[in-house]
Amino acid sequence: MIDVILQSGFLILCGVLWRLLKPLGLDADSLRPNLTGLVYVLLLPSLVLVVLWQAPLNLNAIRVTVVAASGVLLGLALAWLWYRRGKTPAPTVGALLLAAAFPNATYMGLPVLEASLGPWARSIAIQYDLFACTPLLLSLGILIASRHGGVKEVGHPLLALLRVPPLWAALAGVLLNLSGTPLPTGVEATLDKLGSSVVPLMLFSLGLGLQWSNQWRNQLSSLIPVIAIQLLITPFAMWGLAQQIGLSGEMLTGVVLEAAMPSMVLGIVLCDRFKLDSARYAMAVTLTTALSLATLPMWFELLG
């Protein structure tokens, strides 16, 4: 796991250095949307399709989905109970709720699980994200952002889900899998080639998106609950839940590691869209990502 974290950390560091140095005059805020757009529209759907076309779709897939949804809801509940007590402005509360609830299940979870458990574990990350986290983000997450931000949502959450290319790829992969349709060798090779670019680009893009605010001293105290919930409390609780519903071995390790991932990078999109405290959310992503380089190996060792 240490080797995995070091490799992932190096790719993230490359993104951070690009943000600082701006090679070829390309600043991170201009480059990152193009890279993530390529991953989101073409590369990630290719990976999702080839993985779910071949992955075992059994009771464990349902268990992974239950754990993922429970982790998000627990994070939301704990963060709401904490932040409702103070006088924190609503846009900041909304950003912190999202940061505490939604893990970076794909952009960091997928490369970590694949490198530490093997290529088969990609299906855990994809199921964890696309079967639970993404639908909750684009429904409950949008509702929270709308309630706490300065912009009210006018579209139906279902329409937002219909505009997510990886979800369409997941649906196609599941249907092809359940129908017993064989995966042609040429199609598999093409999808694998496209999907192989996802991991390095996701980690590099993650580094491009990390920002350090000049107001970090004032923000740090408000971020401690997010760090505790995202990196410690939720994975511990999901460890117990996963065992109770029948997960064990490497499947158990995979879902607990997913629950222990840092805050989701894509949440910044909702913060910008609904005028939440984007700077505070970016700080939460930066801190939880940096600290996860220490906490993820800890969870891996505890899980045996």
Q: What can you tell me about this protein's structure?
A:
By secondary structure, the protein is mostly helical. It has a single domain (2-21, 40-302), classed as Na+/H+ antiporter like fold. Helices cover 77% and strands 0% of the residues. Helix 2 (28-54) runs antiparallel to helix 10 (198-209) and helix 4 packs parallel to helix 14. The longest helix is centred in the last third of the chain and has 29 residues, at 216-244. The protein is globular and about 55 Å long.
Largest sheet: none
User: What structural class results from the helix and strand content?
Assistant: mainly alpha
Number of strands: 0
Helix content: over 70%
Mean pLDDT: 89
Radius of gyration: 18 Å
Strand content: under 5%
CATH architectural grouping: Up-down Bundle
Treating each run of at least 4 consecutive H or I residues as one helix, how many helices?
Answer: 14
| N-to-C CA distance | 11 Å
Question: What is the gist of this entry?
Answer:
This protein has 304 residues and is mainly alpha-helical.
Key structural traits:
single chain; 304 residues; Na+/H+ antiporter like fold; 77% helix; 0% strand
What topology emerges from the helices and strands here?
Blueprint: H1 2-21, H2 28-54, H3 59-83, H4 90-101, H5 109-117, H6 122-148, H7 157-162, H8 165-178, H9 185-195, H10 198-209, H11 216-244, H12 249-259, H13 267-273, H14 278-302
Helix pairs in contact: 1-10, 2-8, 2-9, 2-10, 3-4, 3-6, 3-11, 3-12, 4-6, 4-11, 4-14, 5-6, 11-12, 11-14
